[in-house]
Amino acid sequence: MAMDTLPHAAGIIGAVVPRIDGPLKTTGTARYAVDHNFPGLAHAVAVQSTVGSGSIRTLDTAAAEKMPGVLLVLHHGNMKGAYRLFPHQDDATISEARPPFEDEKIYYWGQFVALVVAETLEQANAAASAVRVEYDVQTPDVRTDLSAGFTGTRQSSWKRGDPDQALTTAPVVVDETYSTPVETHNPMEMHGTVAVWEGDHLTLYESSQGVVNHRIVMAEVLGVPRENVRVISRFIGSGFGGKLFPWPQSTLAAVAARNLKRPVKLSVDRRMMFSNVGHRPHTQQRIRLGATPDGKLTAIRHDFFTETSMLDDFVEHCGEQTPFLYSCPNLEVTTGMVRRNVGAPAPMRGPGAVPGLFALESAMDELAIKLKMDPLELRLKNDAERDEGTNRPFSSRHLKECYLTGAEKIGWKQRTPEPGSMRRDGKYIGWGLAGASWAAARIPCTATVELCPNGRICVRCATQDIGTGTYTIFAQVMHAKTGVPLDRIDVFLGDTSLPDGPTSGGSMVTSAVLPAATSAANEAVTRLLNIATLTAGSPFAGAKADTLTVSHARIHAKDQPASSGIAFEEVIRMANLSDITAAGKTIPSWEDPKARDYSMHSFGAHFAEVEWEPEIARIRVSRIFSIFDCGRIINKGAGANQILGAAVMGVGMALFEDTVHDPRTGQPINGSFADYLVTTCADLPALDVTFLDYPDLLVNEYGARGIGEIGMAGVAPAITSAVYHATGIRVRDLPIRIEDLLQSKILEA
Ligand code: MOS
């Protein structure tokens, strides 16, 4: 859409607005982390462990050090100046607590054991392959059965009523176990760092979802004051959660650069992405549901195992949505954390909710079948009007309408429940649905707005745009408040020298930045209007500021058209000001007396259709309708992109993604794009996104809630339920495999 066709002023909120940073990306002008080069830049390559458990017996760098161009080989024998972050520090999070090369121990295959730095990347690569390491090897534990060898204690949460008693007496019970595999984040841009020291000041060019957190962590890890560290991440080729918190490559680049007194660049390659920078961990979840014969839930038990690394306590909170999605008097969630020889897990799009809802929503489908009840009707019958987990009202919940809208779109009334009972064009078709939810909150943020004498507006905030459209959101607010066209609005993000902003995580950035941006813009306009009344020569000198306004980038009397006034920058020039700047701040929802007593969540539903061709055992996802209640959508273009992209990842979760660790070595054996399958365009069905667009005014003045992660929740169970409907096969262990479907009794075409 051309800029001049955009609706003016306030109408820009909620419109389809092309990303203002789009041209920078499509022309290759945008520079990502490792696109930065400096005079004297040295190149680093990490050496990875070839065993999954054990310790380094000998590490021989002699040959590597003699090779051309080699400047430094770092390893546990000579590593200095990398410290642990204080455990559970409340304002900072790191991915791996153990600093790289802290000792000779090996905890997972691919762990960095040495770093070679050379004049060129080729020299560093060559020398890295000449580092000789011998290990005392132990058999890595990468068992995929998470109950195997579990000796820990289970944590109970959300308990209400007496679920065990209720399950004993329930007339209808479902008791099944579901599992989800390790999924690897595969953002287009891989992790990478360029570290530049100037004296004792460090600048890190990173691909980070949270520059402010990254700065605090790296200051602690490197033992330098916070104010000496600057982290820059202006463009990010996405992260999906894998770039929320710093990884060892950042520490290594900084330490090497400090040793050499030269800038150092270190990239994580695609193969390393599968071992060194996080993944969604395995989950294994037993769901027990009790119900009355007419389909009212009487008990829910959600008992799950989640896998973590040997050293870091990461929990995939599979039970987070379970306490409030349905109304049910008796409920308990328990968690068992299981250690394996894998790298530290990390949040991945919709952590907890995505695997958790795969299990819960699959079990709901199975319950509907047992009850001989429509799965849609079962959802509607058990919909919660209040958050029964926290016993608080929802700020805004329209899940029922999501279901009813989706049912209308796919034509649910025509659905016949028997597996294999629906045909189209010679294929069997199956329909399935599932609900989705994700937490919302207003997290803290600060921002400044500067009205400039050249007629431009500058907005500054140390959050970052991970590809989701955050630059554009700021520009939309400025345009809405002033009418200054988007091409005269400069948004500066992704740099810790800017006012503190939130980590791009938890789908909470838009709801966090809106109040800060809005209040800064309002305050800047108030100051501008005051200056207009106080400045000699201004046509509004002596007027009352509250009779004036700004629109179409002009100051004018509220009761007169914009054309009667003057361009806003003229007043700034007349007053001889360098600019008019104001700061804005977002008060977090939990400190807001109006908001804190509410349960805030986004909701949604996916309706999936699959086609089944039994003769060739082919399953295709042919349609997905996604209906979402995420508050007011600020940018319908970027917002729809979020749900579409998440649905694509959901198709991958259902059909393809599975990081397989070799039981002998612990190596991710399909750690490449040749072997690790992700959804491609050829696998994709027609996707259809609908937003209900009800403003949630407890979250912010525009009513925008979280949107990024929720789109992935519910896709996989909608697909496996559709697969059951088409084939009669219930897949409880993702991904769906042809071997599973070959068991189908529905064979005749
Ligand atoms: Mo999200 S997994 O918090 O990037």
What summary fits the major beta sheet?
7 strands, mixed
The number of distinct structural domains comes to: 4
Helix tally equals 16
User: Class of the largest domain, according to the CATH hierarchy?
Assistant: Alpha Beta
- Shape type: globular
CATH architecture of the largest domain: 2-Layer Sandwich
> How big is the Rg?
28 Å
Mean pLDDT: 96
Please provide a written account of the structure.
There is one protein chain. The protein is of the alpha+beta class and 749 residues long. It has four domains: 33-139 and 185-274, 2-Layer Sandwich (Aldehyde Oxidoreductase, domain 4); 145-180 and 282-373, Aldehyde oxidase/xanthine dehydrogenase, molybdopterin binding domain (Aldehyde Oxidoreductase, domain 4, 2-Layer Sandwich), CATH 3.30.365.10; 392-441 and 588-749, Aldehyde Oxidoreductase, domain 4 (2-Layer Sandwich); 443-587, Aldehyde Oxidoreductase, domain 4. It has a seven-stranded mixed sheet with strand order 3-5-1-12-9-10-11. The protein has a five-stranded mixed sheet with strand order 7-15-14-13-8, sandwiched between helices. Strands 18-19-27-28-29 form a five-stranded mixed sheet, sandwiched between helices. The longest helix has 26 residues, at 509-534. The radius of gyration is 28 Å and the shape is globular. Bound molecules: dioxothiomolybdenum(VI) ion. Dioxothiomolybdenum(VI) ion is lined by residues 209, 239-241, 244, 347-349, 351, 505-506, 709.
